[in-house]
């Protein structure tokens, strides 16, 4: 192992040389600088692992030099050395990024213990960073499983969003169970804010009054039970991500305050007198069609447009084809390990059943079906009987529209090509709307993003 490199910055030359000799005996490579200018010269050449820095220096102060060192390389550990009269300054330096401080006159054994601890901490941080980067490199979007065109496009969009320095709000739409929470956490994990907080709140879980207190916090005495001040989730997520799950269920009375927080990144605690600025990336998700909710007066138009700056529309599982088997295989591997089973495959008949089943509960339902099958399995292959899939309930037919070869609700004896019928509906809506995609989406009672997905699916996209 290479010896750690140490820079000692102190204008007391006798003390500095004593520290250098002692630390050299302990296996450290050490250099001395008597002021800030000399320290900055050595910084680039030496690239030290650790700096012992006196708080009181001639010219440039130790506090100023600490800032310069952190600008140069935030991973360099800095231990402040201080006389009794400047301990408060040393404590403040720790708040600004110093690893620790030691009082003068210096105890050399204590100094070595601090140096060893600082270098070990730095080594562990480097290892953690290495393994995180390797994990991202080798399994860049672990958990998002799928090869269909829609999922490949979604992964591409996630990569693009994650590369942004500062992302606008992101709205994730899709039916219940399609994996909206997984996409939100993947966005966070691969963003520049991955080391900061990811705070999640379910907007259906609390009434508006409690939701406001959770989101924005409150001051002591703001209401009867407010015996102490409490930070809200916007403040807790400062510098990171705030995930608003099922934002479409937020009560109207709260949506105005939520709009201000999202748009201006400013919140005010309940009972508070001052605004607090927060730096958060907002990710919202909903299974509802928010355009329909806006038209019905249940969701504010301005909040919708602010949240939908970037949208990710997740397809239902029934439209993902072979992805169903990929996901089933993933659950099978995970559940074998969890329950100590040895189910190696899904037989052909069971695989066909999985593909043909409409999956109203989407990926969540698939995971439960595979879990139940694995629990009751006796061999190394899952059969259709072990899947225990009940026949799908009849779906509600769409509103009557003129379609080729299909009368109102009547199905021919030979059956129909559902994909072709759906395509004809999309084509009819485009004709009736004169090619206006927004109007076509309204005719089909779809969001614009869902319509765009179907246009690409059927090769009708002009983009």
TrEMBL record:
Biological process according to GO: phosphorelay signal transduction system; regulation of DNA-templated transcription
Record has ATP-binding as a keyword: yes
Keywords, alphabetical: ATP-binding, Nucleotide-binding, Phosphoprotein, Transcription, Transcription regulation
SUPFAM superfamilies: CheY-like, Homeodomain-like, P-loop containing nucleoside triphosphate hydrolases
Molecular function in Gene Ontology: ATP binding; sequence-specific DNA binding
Annotated signal peptide: none
Modified residues (4-aspartylphosphate): 54
Ranges where the Response regulatory domain occurs: 5-119
Gene3D superfamilies: 1.10.8.60, 3.40.50.2300, Homeodomain-like, P-loop containing nucleotide triphosphate hydrolases
Domain Sigma-54 factor interaction: 144-375
The keyword Ribonucleoprotein is annotated on this UniProt entry: no
Protein name according to UniProt: Response regulator in two-component reguatory system, sigma54 dependent transcriptional regulator
Organism encoding this protein: Candidatus Methylomirabilis lanthanidiphila
């Amino acid at each position: 192992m290479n010896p750690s490199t140490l820079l000692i910055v102190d204008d007391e030359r006798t003390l500095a040389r004593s520290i250098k000799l002692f630390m050299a005996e302990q296996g450290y490579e050490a250099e001395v600088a008597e002021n800030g200018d000399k320290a900055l010269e050595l910084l680039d050449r030496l690239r030290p692992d650790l700096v012992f820095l006196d708080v009181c220096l001639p010219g440039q102060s130790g506090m100023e030099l600490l800032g310069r060192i952190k600008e140069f390389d935030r991973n360099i550990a800095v231990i402040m050395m201080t006389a009794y009269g400047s301990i408060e300054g040393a404590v403040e330096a720790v708040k600004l990024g110093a690893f620790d401080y030691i009082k003068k006159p210096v105890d050399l054994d204590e100094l070595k213990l601090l140096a060893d601890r600082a270098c070990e901490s730095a080594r562990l941080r480097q290892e953690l960073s290495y393994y995180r980067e390797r994990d991202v490199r080798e399994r860049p979007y672990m958990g998002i499983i799928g090869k269909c065109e829609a999922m490949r496009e979604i992964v591409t969009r996630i990569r693009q969003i994650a590369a942004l320095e500062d992302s606008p709000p992101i709205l994730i739409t899709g039916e219940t169970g399609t994996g909206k929470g997984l996409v939100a956490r993947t966005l966070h994990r691969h963003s520049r804010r991955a080391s900061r907080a990811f705070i999640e709140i379910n907007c259906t879980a609390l009434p508006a009054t409690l939701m406001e207190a959770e989101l924005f916090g409150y001051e002591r005495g703001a209401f009867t039970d407010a015996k102490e001040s409490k930070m809200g989730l916007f403040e807790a997520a400062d510098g990171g991500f705030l995930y608003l799950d099922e934002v479409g269920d937020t009560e109207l009375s709260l949506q105005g305050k939520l709009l201000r927080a999202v748009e201006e990144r400013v919140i005010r605690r309940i009972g508070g007198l001052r605004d607090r600025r927060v730096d958060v990336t907002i990710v919202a998700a909903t299974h509802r069609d928010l355009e329909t909710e806006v038209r019905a007066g249940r969701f504010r138009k301005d909040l919708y447009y602010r949240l939908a700056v970037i949208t990710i529309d997740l397809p239902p599982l029934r439209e993902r084809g072979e992805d169903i088997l990929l996901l089933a295989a993933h659950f099978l591997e995970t559940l074998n390990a969890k329950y100590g089973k040895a189910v190696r495959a899904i037989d052909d008949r069971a695989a066909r059943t999985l593909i043909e089943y409409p999956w109203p509960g989407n990926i969540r339902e698939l995971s439960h079906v595979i879990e139940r099958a694995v629990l009751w399995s006796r061999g190394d292959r899952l059969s259709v009987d072990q899947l225990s899939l009940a026949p799908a309930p009849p779906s509600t037919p769409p509103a009557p529209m003129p379609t080729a070869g299909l009368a109102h609700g009547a199905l021919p004896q030979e059956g129909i090509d559902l994909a072709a019928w759906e395509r004809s509906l999309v084509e009819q809506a485009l004709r009736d709307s004169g090619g206006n995609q927004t109007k076509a989406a309204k005719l089909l009672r779809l969001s614009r993003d869902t319509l765009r997905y179907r246009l690409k699916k059927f090769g009708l996209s002009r983009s």
